[in-house]
Amino acid sequence: MSTTVDQPQSAPPELSAKDRRRVAFASTIGTTIEFYDFYVYATAAVAVFPFLFFPESDNPTVGLLASFATFGLAFVARPLGSILFGHFGDRVGRKATLVGALLTMGIATFLIGLLPTYGQIGIIAPALLALMRFCQGLGLGGEWSGAALLASETAAEGKRARAAMWPQFGAPFGFFLANGFFLVLVTLLGHNSGDAHGAFMSWGWRIPFLASAIMVIVGLYVRLRLQETPVFQQAVDTGKKVDSPLGEVFRTAWRPLISGTFIMVGCYTIFYLVTTWILSYGITDKESGTGLGIPYNDFLVIQLVSIFAFIIGIPIAGRLADTKGRKPTLFWTTIAIIAFGFSFEFFLDPATATEGSVLAFLTIGMFLMGLIFGPMSAVLPELFPTNVRYTGSGISYNVSSILGAAIAPFIATALNAEFGVQSVGWYLVVVAVISLIAIIMMRETREKDLSEI
Q: What is the CATH architecture assignment of 17-452?
């Protein structure tokens, strides 16, 4: 039920060019911080936590916590975060909720840098790490949809996809900062992969977590200076705000929820194949037949170089989505992703692959990722009315992360071990076809007025 009676509609006020630049910066820096925090954990989960927080032990609880904390917990927390922050985002406003999401993620990341290890306090250490990972997932679950709405609901007419692309830069920027920071640290401190001793393992790994506090302070300063989005303010003024956004979205917008989830699932699958799975495949011993045996530091450099293709793809997709339409841009990019799925053996066959072929593979994959990810911050919000837009877009985005991301590295690893690397490509093809069907069934949303959805 609405909290107030309906009032006559009026057009939301226009923002100045200066205000829009401030919104673009605020949405970009916020998602950059959030993804930086998320990737810092992911990198440490490979190089640090197995030695300091999850050592070999007869205690089965340690193994259970390791399983939850290193990957799955965050993906469980993200949909919960979208529900929690979506409720306040649709009830209280975008600005205040985004501040809360940023603080949740930032404080959890900072505290990880202060945690005692398993050797110091025993089983409590991995339990605390798991709790902090859960909080990271909550924060990220509320961050993306809020940043996407902040950008899209303040966009100039005809430029919504280009305005909404700014929070999408947070993913490659955060990835680059997190992995680049670790690369500098392991190089300066002389750390080798698998070494459980030395300066890096003693204290160096904590620096990226503690440094996130500086970024969070900057992000808070920028976001606290923002005003509420005109589209949300109009919904408040005309009595369209609802008491229970979660109940309302499932009652009135369940079709967009399903559509948005499957539109996004292929995007998440390719992203986690070219970031998470490819790392384990690339550095696994070549003699095992399930990897390429590239040194960890060298592979990190390859990933850092290829991430620029991701960055380039985002603005191209944003412009295409505004000029050609959301549906054609997503359709043809997904066709290209399906074609890319046929190339895995060509680039990654252990018998013939080189660092150059891996770089080419990642560059193509990252560019396609930029093209498919770029318009999503316009597409998903455009599926939902203003009074449930934060909740609806957040749930679709984060449920697709479970279907497309949380399980992708595990399925890919199992397929590669049993059937070879090209089977991973077939897996991407199948998921991309599912997304293609959802894209074909979606309606074009380029010309829609957000205040009238």
A: Up-down Bundle (1.20)
Considering all CA atoms of the chain, what is the largest pairwise distance in Å, rounded to the nearest integer? 71
Domain map of the chain by residue range? Answer: 17-452
Q: What are phi and psi of 16, to 5 degrees?
A: -75, 165
Distance CA 358, CA 299 (A): 9
Q: Which of 205, 417, 442, 224 is nearest to 329 (CA)?
A: 442
Helices (H), 225-295: 230-237, 245-252, 254-272, 278-283
Output the pTM of the full model.
Answer: 0.85
The token duo for 174 is 């955060």
Q: Which residue type occupies 326?
A: R
Name the CA dihedral angle for 81, 83, 84, 88, rounded to a multiple of 10 degrees.
Answer: 130
Cα–Cα dist 337/313, whole Å: 13
- In tens, the pLDDT along 49-58 reads 888 887 776 6
Whole-angstrom distance, CA of residue 257 vs CA of residue 183: 39
**64-119 tens-digit pLDDT:** 466 556 666 777 888 888 888 888 877 877 778 888 888 998 899 999 999 999 88
Nearest of 365, 323, 320 to residue 346 by alpha carbon: 365
d(C-alpha 374, C-alpha 361), whole Å: 20
